[in-house]
Structures are given as C-alpha cells and as structure tokens.
Amino acid sequence: MREKILQKVTELSQALLKAKVMVATAESCTGGMVAEALTAIAGSSAWFERAFIAYSYESKYEMLGVHPLTIQEHGSVSKQCVEEMAIGALQNAHAQLTVAISGIAGPDGASAGKPVGTVWIAWAGQHMSVVSQRFQFDGDRDSVREQATLAALEGMLDRLRHIE
Q: Which H or E run includes 17?
C-alpha cells in the first residue's frame, strides 16, 4: 500500500506544480498520514502549505471552526463535519485546495450506522464547491488509515480538474 501511496503523491505533485496550487490537510483518524505522504518526496514545499491534525472535538472547533452543534447533531464522523473541516482548513491556510478526513479506524469506536472502517473525506478549494464522500474500508486500523490516505490523495487529484 505504501508504494501505491507514494506513486499517487508523485502524480499529484506534478499536477499541483502544473496548476500552481498549494494544498493543506485537515486530518482526524489518519493522524497526519496524508501530510506525511505528501512531504515524503523532495520539493513538496512548492505545493504543500500546512496540516491540521484535529483529533479531538476541541481541536476541530478551535483550529478549523467546526460548529459544536455539527458534532452534537451529526457526530465527528459525518459529511457535515468533514465539510466544515475542509472549509476551515481553506480559510485558515494559504492553500487553494484542502482535504479533510474523519473516521473510525478501529478497533473501537463503532456505533449504530458507523461501523469500524467508516471514513468521511471532503475536498474544498477556491472556485469550487465542497465535495464529500463516505467510504467503508476493510481491515485493521493501519489498513483503514492507509486506504483513507490513498482515497484522499486520489480525490485531490480529481478535484484539481475543477480548480480554475
């Protein structure tokens, strides 16, 4: 999986350089894995701006502006939460494209309707609408986090086509 992630980062880096776009991440369940993958290749400072690791509710409120009612009503693993995280990252960074991730990597944390492996990812950017997607990944904690990282990178690559 690590090799796939690095291949995707290489592809993404070329697209970001061509588009002259900076990116930022807002991560919960991945704990910075997307940011780590993005900075694993030389030259990433040309297109990687910053990362927010917002694991607690408070960090989501304070760093990214997620409204407390969003988490109360929908939970932190929800479309609403990741969309607010992505927008908050866009507003608090010097980036034109952001990705936000929140999920249940396991082995604990599952609830009714949100089994282990449930991950929400949202992408936001200047001059584009916020897009989010729910994923249901299989495997252990590491596998869920790696699959979420790859999905986040693939989504960023896809969203680059929508930035003017």
A: helix 2-19
> In the numeric block, which tokens belong to residue 152?
């986040």
Q: Which amino acid type is present at position 105?
A: A
Give the separation between CA 108 and CA 123, rounded to whole angstroms.
26
In whole numbers, what is the pLDDT of the chain averaged over residues?
Answer: 95
- pLDDT value at position 163? 65
**Cα–Cα distance between 42 and 133 in angstroms, integer?**
30
Question: Nearest to residue 10, comparing CAs of 44, 50, 35?
Answer: 44
pTM exceeding the 0.85 threshold for the entire prediction: yes
CA–CA separation, 40 vs 109, rounded Å?
Answer: 30
CA dihedral 6, 12, 18, 20 (to 10 degrees): -110
Topology annotation, domain 2-160:
Maf protein (3.90.950)
Is the backbone peptide bond immediately before 107 cis, with ω within 30 degrees of 0? yes
Q: Which residue has the tokens 């919960």?
A: 28
